[in-house]
Amino acid sequence: MIETERLFLREFRDSDLADIQEYAGDLEVVRYLPWGPNTLEQTREFLSNVQRNRPEHGFAIELKQEQRVVGACRLTVKDQLNRSGDIGYVLNRRYWGRGYIPEAAGALLEFGFGELKMHRIWARCDVLNFASARVMEKLGMRREAHLLQDVFEKGVWRDSYIYAILESER
């Protein structure tokens, strides 16, 4: 578990199902994600899978004050030899604009560079996902690439930005 001023980044629990479904089933929340919107059954399957397989560094984002899950985040080690990995995040729309994702993603960067001894951490976002791009810029990540039609998601080709930060830039 990782603790920040307002959040716990922790493992998912059975009791999180309704909270996860609230954001996973929201078309606006998942607009730029490769999955969703989820049915309740799909969310139940996700929760079962994530609990069974325990992703290496995948976390539920719990608000301390409300004691409820409002999103999820992860850091995935992509290349152990070169000490690089990527981050991703999603947040319930009712909590947008309050700084929770920069707080959670910032904690992931600290964890990655500190505990995991990562050298480089990167993230991808759809070029139309202005909020996600702002989050990465807020974290000190720099835009390294604009990839044209690099992913086919939800029936259309999409462009992506790649942002990254090095351990020495923190």
Structural class, please? alpha+beta
Domain unit count: 1
CATH topology: Aminopeptidase
Range of strand content: 35-45%
The coarse overall form would be globular
- Order of strands in the sheet with the most strands? 1-2-3-4-5-6-8-7
How would you sum up the major sheet?
Answer: 8 strands, mixed
Q: Quick one: CATH class? A: Alpha Beta
CATH architecture classification name? 3-Layer(aba) Sandwich
**Which assembly state applies to the chains in this document?**
single chain
- Please, what is the average pLDDT? 96
- What distance lies between the first and last C-alpha atoms, to the nearest angstrom? 22 Å
List the secondary-structure elements in sequence, H or E: EEHHHEEEHEHEE
Give the helix level as a range of percent: 25-40%
Q: How many strand elements?
A: 8
Number of helical segments with 4 or more residues: 5
Whole-angstrom Rg: 15 Å
Low-confidence parts: none
Tell me the name of the CATH homologous superfamily: Gcn5-related N-acetyltransferase (GNAT)
Helices and strands in order:
Blueprint: E1 2-3, E2 7-10, H1 17-24, H2 27-30, H3 40-53, E3 58-63, E4 68-79, E5 84-91, H4 100-114, E6 120-126, H5 130-138, E7 142-153, E8 156-166
Parallel strand pairs: 5-6
Antiparallel strand pairs: 1-2, 2-3, 3-4, 4-5, 6-8, 7-8
Helix pairs in contact: 1-3
